Amino acid sequence: MFEFSGGIAMILNNILTVAPILVFFICFFGLITGRKIIKSIILMAVMQASVVLFFLTIGFRSGISPPIGGHFEELQYVADPLPHALMITAIVIGVAVTTINITMLMSMFRTYKTTDWDIAEQKSMEDVE
Amino acid sequence: MLIYFVLIPILISVFFYLCPSFRLGRALVFLVQAGLFVAAIYLFVLTQEAEVTTYIGNYTGLLGITLRADELSAIFVMLTVFIFLMVMLYSFREQKSRLYWFLIFIMEGALMGLFLTRDLFNIFVLTEVASVVAAILLMYNRNNRSMYDGMVYLMVNVIVMQLFLFGVGYIYMLTGLLDLAYSGHAMAYLERSQLVLPFALIMTAVAAKCGLLPIFTFLPKVHSIPKAPATVAAILSGLQVKVGLYLFLRFQSMFSVIDVDNFFIIIGVMTAIFGIVLAVSQTSFKRILAYSTIAQVGLILVGLSVNQPYSYIGSVYHMVGHAVAKAGLFLSAGILIESCGTGNVTKIRGVFRRMPLVGVGISLAILGITGAPFFSGNISKYFMMANVNPLLFVLMTIINLGTIVIFIRCAKMLFGRPTDDNTVRVDMCKQISVLMIGILCLVGGIWGLDSIYILFGRELSISVWSFVEKTLIVLASWGVGILLVSKVLPRYQTKLDVLVRFDLNFRTICASIGGMFALLLIVVGFLI
User: Fold this and answer.
1) Is the pTM of this model over 0.80?
2) Which residues of B touch A115 (CB under 8 A)?
């Protein structure tokens, strides 16, 4: 077995923590390469979901109970509920931002008749000054 | 008490939106805003003695959400209220739309919250609110251009805030705390290698917020949208960018374990030089102002990273002075576009003849930013450059020379005769707001040492000899600047014209965010 130290160990020892980071950077790659605006918006939404997933895995250790429902007196270990509480806000913000982005895309589509970043940029350049 | 600074603007925005009488509502809102200004001064007086803390929900534990005002945040709260007061005075008669006022007040609440909060997650929420509101205000006129730029602005902001949130989660994972100060203390017990990833994540977001080198082009673009309200540009360029720098200051002290000052000095100098080169090549007044903001941000970043007590005071004073002066310049740019029908600095002439008050306001603000003697910029740049090493001193003088060159090109439009003789009457409220901002720049310079004593509680002095030396440097810079503008620049005008269209598209901005992140990881993880 490999022995890692410091921050790397903390990530690698917990496979659940690796998944959101992977998803996050795959989305980032998609944002750099994608040509369509709608794809960028979807990728941003997935990116937000990956951050939410990351927060949810923070409190998790194997063999502990989720912090909802049950009788906490009987349980020995309960997952940390604070990140979950934070994520409710983050999800709401994510929904709002995605909605605004899609609204903007719609009104941009009406004027430019395109969903492509490059063409939209060219057309917006044309009507400067 | 502190929670009212965030709540009152939001409550009055709702009140104004629903109020049946527009005029009555507007008058009441103005009174409340003036009262808020008095309250901000009172808050500043309170923070002189001790930190003012408000626990939200009265939970005083380590995990509680706190609003905390120390001297620094009190200064910025005062600045925010003042600039919003001027912005409201400017749009007093112009803006009839309730939605505009509603959004402006929400923006004020969010910015105040950002300056007061010490909770990492609240910083995320409030920046998201501020950028969404800013994006809506930008698209307000439904102009084509602003639609594209506003969209890029919003999406880039959301992406960097996701990076920020990732960093916050990582800090919570490591320390179990979300408070800036407490998690900063807890970090002393962690290994440095554990902090590399959250540092890179958070600093990338902060760098994008203040528009540092690889990620800066989307900010000047939204600040200079031709048909967006001038007030929005004033708020974005004056205050929103300062929020980035303020967060930089806070996170710099939070990650005190990681010392990358030299890296940020290099980034700051390069940002300033890029900003100046791009500003010199532009012809639109708003564009010039927007790129000069980037240049000043670079300069302030250098001042904050030099790590000298005087340079810290100078930088914060420059942040305040620059915010005021830049807000004034953007507001006067709005007046000029309205009255002359164009924002092109090569076409506007004779502002003094046509609108003497606005002319005085513009010239005072320009003198304030460029650091002419007896103006706020002079004092702040003096302390920023005190005790830095000679190489940096030369670089900062060159950056200041660049700023002077930028503004001499703008100052040309103040003189001469108006090219056309349409006489549009400019609203008196607008002229007064610009003039008041100009006068504040002058006051901040003449009583500079006193205001530094009031703001920072430090009694500083400038010896006569160094003042003369500094004045000579500034005068020489003005001479060289005039020479450059009149003789050298016209020769390279065709080459500079290429830069007018310099722009990064959305994907390139994303790539540069990734680049900044990778750069920070490499620098912090391996080099230092």
Assistant:
1) yes
2) none
Please indicate whether, in this complex, the C-beta atoms of B151 and A123 are within 8 angstroms of each other.
no
Long-range contacts of B452-459 (CB under 8 A, 24+ apart): B452/B313, B452/B317, B452/B379, B452/B383, B455/B71, B455/B75, B455/B316, B455/B317, B455/B320, B456/B71, B456/B313, B456/B316, B456/B317, B457/B48, B457/B71, B458/B313
DSSP structure string for B241-279: HHHHHHHHHHHHHHTTTS--HHHHHHHHHHHHHHHHHHH
* CA–CA gap between residue B324 and residue B235 (Å, rounded): 10
Which residues, including other chains, have CB under 8 Å from residue A68's CB and lie 6 or more apart?
A: none
Contact A7 B121 (CB under 8 A): no
**B253-274: pLDDT as tens digits:** 888 888 888 889 999 999 999 8
* Residues B510 and A29 sit within 8 Å (Cβ to Cβ): no
User: Smallest Cα–Cα separation from B396: which of B280, B319, B311?
Assistant: B311
Q: How far is CA B278 from CA B281, B283, B356, B358, in A?
A: 5, 10, 30, 26
Give yes or no for B505 touching A (CB within 8 A): yes
Question: Which two structure tokens, joined as six digits, stand for B174?
Answer: 């490591």
Query: Hey, what are B269's tokens?
Result: 């100098």
- The answer to whether the CB atoms of B510 and A124 lie below 8 A apart is no
In contact, B412 and B491? CB cutoff 8 Å: no
| 8 A C-beta contact, residue B376 and residue B445 | yes
Q: Which two tokens stand for residue B302?
A: 């250098």
Largest separation between any pair of C-alpha atoms in chain A: 70
B-chain residues near A40 (CB < 8 A)? 155, 506
Side-chain half-sphere CA neighbours of B354 within 13 A: 23
Q: Do A32 and B511 touch (CB under 8 A)?
A: yes
Question: What backbone torsions phi and psi does residue B61 show, to the nearest 5 degrees?
Answer: -70, 180
Q: ipTM, 2 decimals?
A: 0.87
Closest partner residue to B505 among A47, A58, A121, by Cβ?
A: A121
CA B319 – CA B304 distance, rounded (Å): 10
Q: CA end-to-end span of chain A, whole Å?
A: 64
Domains of chain A: 6-126 (1.10.287.3510)
B488 touches chain A (CB under 8 A): no
Beta-carbon separation of A101 and B169 below 8 A: no
What distances in angstroms separate CA B73 from CA A16, B40, B244, one per listed residue?
A: 39, 10, 13
Angle made by CA atoms B383, B278, B211, in degrees to the nearest 5: 60
Q: Mutate which of A97, A98, A106, A117 to disrupt the B interface (most B C-beta within 10 Å)?
A: A97
Would you state the pLDDT for residue B400?
87
Dist. CA B421–CA B435, nearest whole Å: 23
Asked whether the beta carbons of residue A44 and residue B155 sit closer than 8 angstroms, the reply is yes
Query: pLDDT by residue (tens digit) across B386-425?
Result: 777 888 888 888 888 888 888 888 888 888 777 666 666 7
